[in-house]
Amino acid sequence: MYPWIDLYLFKIPSFGLMVATAFLVCNHLLKREFPKNNLDPKIADDIIFYSIISAIVGSKLYHVIESGSFSDLFSNLENIFISLISLEFVKAINQLQFLGSGLVFNGGFLCALIFIAVYLNRNKINFFQILDIVGPYILLGHGIGRIGCFLVGDDYGLPTSSPLGIAFPNGLPKTLISTFTENGQLHHLGYNAEQLKDFLIPGSTEIIKVHPTQIYEMILYFLGFYLIRNAFKNTKLTLGLTSSIYLVYAGLSRFIVELIRTNERYMFNLSSAQYISLLLIFAGIIIYLNLNRINKSYGKN
To answer: What is the per-residue pLDDT for 285?
Structure first.
């Protein structure tokens, strides 16, 4: 685990580095892609800019609402303000790192989608034309971001004795028996200490192995990017087709991985991420069933 990258003179958070890498890589590739589709490369810069701002706000709000940690957020913001006015910059940086924790992709994605839709509408740019191009790159960026989750030991899956299992003794939270049992952060999963002994790593009485779902997701998203991007030369001929494929693939991928994630369950034993995944799948199917109407409308405009 490498939650911080040590550059000798200073340290940078590995998760933040991978998120920044994802945005920079996608921005670079999109600026090359847009001219091929008769679009101004500046649109890519605008989309990335609005995506960064809205995604951070949306993902943090989603986390706060789901976890109910409003007091922690306000306390964090207060500490940042106090540290800055008292010129305690090291403390301020540490508090900013804490502010970045709990960023949830689904919240950021939904918020960014709304902001970008408003931007495209104001600039009279067809939404599906942009989503057709951008969709595969969202998968690429999400996959890169999952590398950051793996480096900090966050967003892992259920305990497992599988050879694929990995222990995160310093993860967020740590993969310890006490984490999964009563009073632990993941006690809602219903494990007892005796059950968890089957997942202990050799030589330990406390550290257990879990599914590295960050890696599973990363592989699915990279694969999706490769397949959808390679098919784009054919699918782009039908406006909205790439968008529908992207939405169904992204929703289905996340829904499957969530089956072995540690997130809390709600009605029908589904997590909030699975409900959003179902919405994405449903939206993709609706778009696919209305491709003729979408293309006729685009032709008239």
So the answer is: 97
